[in-house]
Predict the 3D structure of the following.
Amino acid sequence: MTLWGELALDGPRRSVTVEREYPATAAELWAALTEPERLARWIGRYEETADGFRLAMGAPDAVVDGRVLACDPGQRLLVTWRFSDAGQVEAPTELEAVIRPAGEGRVLLTLTHRRVQAVTASVYGAGWQDVLTHLARELGAEASPQEHDGYLGEAADPAAFDAALDEYRREEVALVAATMTREGDRSAVSLRRLLDATVDDVWDALTLPDRVGRWLWPVLDWPDDPVRERRLRLGDVIRLGDENVEGAVQELEVLDLQDRAHLRVTWGDAAVSIRLTETGDGTLLSLEQDGVKDIVGAGRLRSAPDFAAGWHTLVDQLTLLLAGLTVPAPDRLWEAAYLVYSAE
């Protein structure tokens, strides 16, 4: 699979840039980007609203609300972009389209999507790559044997979309990869992640049972609290995981707890520390897993890449929880992370 774009850090969020060259004039491409009847054939049904526009993206609840921030006909269009679907609303972002000459009868379109929520950036990378394929057909290109005609929520080539998504996921992992160190049969993991949330919100997610169970593991036992409402306390022992799966239950003891700053718990025969630091852009999470002995799981030996991929995926899930979004296929997130760490 060949990617047309790249992901980059944008504070606690990400930027997504995707490019494609078209056999068209700038005026032809501009018309496809701005005329409602043409937009409906490759990205979504356009309608004006009181303060901007709305694009209906095909699925019953999938819409984008935005407004035009800058418009230079034939060259540049900048809009706000806020996607919502199935009751979930993403934070506002910005989408910029720039048209440049690319030789006789050809133009280059560069789409830059800024302030995209972390973890969802890979979905946008693959999504924009697919959407630009639909745009190519709107400009006269023929569909390949693998592609179907029409858009409104369906991938032009589902297999190509899935392959691109996996590659973009690996690219996003590499942007914020953890560090692994190994001594003998023990592996330690160090991870730093800038989160788009306040310290208070992150601390709630680390210490309240209804929040912990939504990103770490399901809560099986929360001490002295049958209704599971109170925060963790120093000395607490909690049980998390799935009792129906062998080896899928963890018992954690709180070894240190400093309000809104530090949480240290046992982890197998070692421990994990999470420190929080408020910054101007969000909250810096610093995670340190002490050296954990190699273990046998799922029929094979698991060591540093498994532990790093595991923590990376869990922090991805925490990131989405803090943004009010659900986790898309956590197994796929882990697989992408594991491929990055196992290649080191």
In short: DSSP finds eight helices and 20 strands in the chain. The chain has two domains: 5-174, 179-342. Helices lie at 26-34, 36-42, 121-138, 158-175, 199-207, 209-215, 304-322, 330-342. The mean pLDDT is 91.
